[in-house]
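[Meeting: bench + compute handoff]

Bench side (C.D.) handed over the final construct sequence. Compute side (W.E.) agreed to return the predicted structure before the next meeting so the bench team could plan truncations. Sequence as handed over:
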Amino acid sequence: MIGLCVSRTTTRFGKLRPWILFSTPLGCVTYFFLWYVPDLSDEGKLAYYFAFYCLFQGFLTCLHVPYTSLTMYITGSQKERDSATAYRMVSEAVGVLLASLVQGQMINKYRIAGDCKDEKATASPTQLKDQEMSYIYGSVVMIGIYLFCSITVFFGTKENQGIVTDDSESFCSGLKLVLGSKSYVRLSFAFLFISLAIAVVQGNLALFTTHAIHLSEYFSTFMVILLATSILSIPIWQKVLLRFGKKSTYAAGIILFIPTLLSQLYITDNVYVYFAILVLAGFSVAVSLLLPWSMLPDVLDEFMLETGQRKDAIFYSFYVFFNKLAAGLALGISQIVLELGGYQTGECRQPESVGLALRLLIVPGPVIFCLVALIFLWIYPIDEARRNQIRNLIEEKK
């Protein structure tokens, strides 16, 4: 829906940037209320958080779709788009790391929930209030960063006015055109399955380190290593894709992720070995951050050459949809497996079967998802030769 609305927007500030600017305050307000605890019954809190979570995700989509689509509007050069994508993905990874460090440090000082060292310990009303306020203060800091970044994008970028999109068709006919692109469908499914593999691992990493390898005290360090490696390796992968091509580089990153996953079956409580595994995982995660978004502009250029139309916002909106779909499916899969493994919500001590369930959750499924992603990537038709051909044809049209 947002992709359709964005594609039909026309203002003196452009199509995309107004959406980024005006959705930001709404996203900030709903984000704040995610961390506010209302004085309601359990049923009331369920309705409250469900509503605000959906609102936040909706307003975030109002930013994410035009923000990602902006890559196609700031330049017509393939090289410059690839460079912009690399900078964007480094910035996103830095943002995740910054959130983990800033909000994490503010919360950890007062956090008492989930402390299993002393099961008989009780928290005073003052401690509970301090913990509640630490989440609110952390959200305020994040909102400040959110506002700064959105304002920077709005005033710091300029949409290329020479790009003309065809908005005369209905959404359904436009969608039919988009899904009629074999390159787009194959790339999207490769993106969906690698995103699903990473989402399953990411969503269960905290439980895995706690109940499978019993290294929960190092979890914050693990996250910093994983994110820092991802950030530092993105420029390396950018140079690799320039040398060997995007399709080959994407495949290499997915293949590298498979032994990282398989190692989770055998890893024990050796923290230094797990440090090394996380470094390897960071290199793989960097590929999943960079390459799918770097390859999408090539598909859009091919679509434009074949149809004479631009449907960039709709292309990007479904790409964002696949990313969110992967996160939702990963949560559902995880819930089912953990329930079968005997996981008891809120309990400090879990049965041994939970550790085995977590190992099986992280290994067979994500490995299969990686292999499926490789199959779709193998039949993806835009290799380096085709990409250069597309670039030359576009240059001839200018």
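W.E. noted at the follow-up: The two ends are 32 Å apart (CA to CA). C.D. will use this when planning the next construct.
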